[in-house]
Amino acid sequence: MDGTPGSPRRPAPVIRSELDIVTYKEEVVQALTEARGVAQSQVRRAQDKQKRLQDQHAAEPSFQVGDRVFLCEPAAKSSNAHKRARPYGGPYHIVLLMFL
Q: What are 48-58's pLDDT values in tens digits?
């Protein structure tokens, strides 16, 4: 079982004795372990690709003195009282640019 889409599946063995049950169990555990590893590597590969594509198109925000901006002030995570509160305050005017 190589984990690729369209790969043929092994037919379930006919169980005849307790020894066959133990062998079958070991084969199933091994197949599931392999399938989990394949799935994890594919997810990791897809996430890396998505991050790479996002990083290509993402740009640092650029502000100028006099721009009007909104400030994100999210509510506290532990309180439901601010569930419907607006998370952005403003608009504020930029009066000074500070670069760190």
A: 999 999 999 88
For residue 60, CA distances in Å to 30, 56, 68, 87 come to 47, 11, 17, 21
Question: What is the pTM assigned to this prediction?
Answer: 0.47
Rounded Cα–Cα distance for residues 29 and 15 (Å): 16
Query: What would the two tokens of residue 64 be?
Result: 């100028």
DSSP 32: H
Contacts of residue 80, defined as CB under 8 A and 6 or more positions apart, other chains included, come to: none
Q: Which residue has the tokens 């063995």?
A: 13
Question: pLDDT tens, 21-52?
Answer: 888 899 999 999 999 999 999 999 999 999 99
Sign of the CA dihedral 75, 80, 83, 84? negative
Alpha helices in 1-100 (DSSP H): 18-57
Say which DSSP state 28 is in: H
What 3-state DSSP class applies to 11? coil
